[in-house]
Amino acid sequence: MDTKKIKLYSITTCAFCQAIKKMLKDLGVVHEVVDADLLSDGEREAMLEELRRVNPSCSFPTITIDDQTITGFKIQEIKEAIGIRTPVDDLYDALKKIQEPKGYFFNRDKERDFDLLRGLLTNKDRYGYMSCPCRLASGKREEDQDILCPCVYREADVREFGSCYCQLYVSAAWNEDRIPHALVPERRKARG
């Protein structure tokens, strides 16, 4: 990975700013942080003038990576701009290659997809299998067969609603807004 010039414009009370700081630190990424709310009046005005050049709305968080500016809490976009790959990226690529030919597409909201995929990997670490991140697993694979991702409900959900329960897998029509984005009801029966 090439060394990139990374600067995060932040506010110490912003949860999204703090999450990005933590991610960069945890990944060992060299970066500069400017906490706008801790600057003196003169420093703050100079920082705002600088920030306006890359983000006219002066919203937080704003991160610059070389000549690219990313505004908002866009973890995946930030990782991609820095050139960082994680097991979640590998899972995304593998599942996309398998599922798209079957007519199941990832939600066009990539940040949401990656949150759900992180949940799948968390469940794999916990239980030894990737159970649906939106449902409570028992920890007993035989009891959770119906919610191993992709769950047994996905086909009917996508056919009827255009998306699965989690909205991880969707139809092309759903992604293209050709059908309404209705909430998918829970098909799984309550357990014990």
Would you write up a description of this structure?
It contains seven helices and six strands, in the order βαβαββααβααβα. The protein has 192 residues and is of the alpha+beta class. The N and C termini lie far apart (50 Å). The chain has a four-stranded mixed β-sheet, with helices on both faces. Strands 5-6 form a two-stranded antiparallel sheet.
Strand content: 5-15%
Low-confidence spans: none
Strand order of the largest sheet: 2-1-3-4
**Mind describing the biggest β-sheet?**
4 strands, mixed
What is the count of β-strands? Answer: 6
SSE order in H/E notation? EHEHEEHHEHHEH
Shape: elongated
CA radius of gyration: 20 Å
| Class of secondary structure makeup | alpha+beta
Please report the number of helical segments.
7
The average pLDDT is: 95
Helix content: 40-55%
Cα(first) to Cα(last) distance is 50 Å
List keywords for this structure.
192 residues; alpha+beta; four-stranded mixed sheet; two-stranded antiparallel ribbon; 7 helices
Condensed summary:
The chain is an alpha+beta fold. The chain has helices spanning 15-26, 41-54, 75-82, 87-99, 110-127, 154-161, 172-175, and strands spanning 6-10, 32-35, 62-65, 68-71, 105-106, 169-170.
Topology record:
Blueprint: E1 6-10, H1 15-26, E2 32-35, H2 41-54, E3 62-65, E4 68-71, H3 75-82, H4 87-99, E5 105-106, H5 110-127, H6 154-161, E6 169-170, H7 172-175
Parallel strand pairs: 1-2
Antiparallel strand pairs: 1-3, 3-4, 5-6
Helix pairs in contact: 4-5
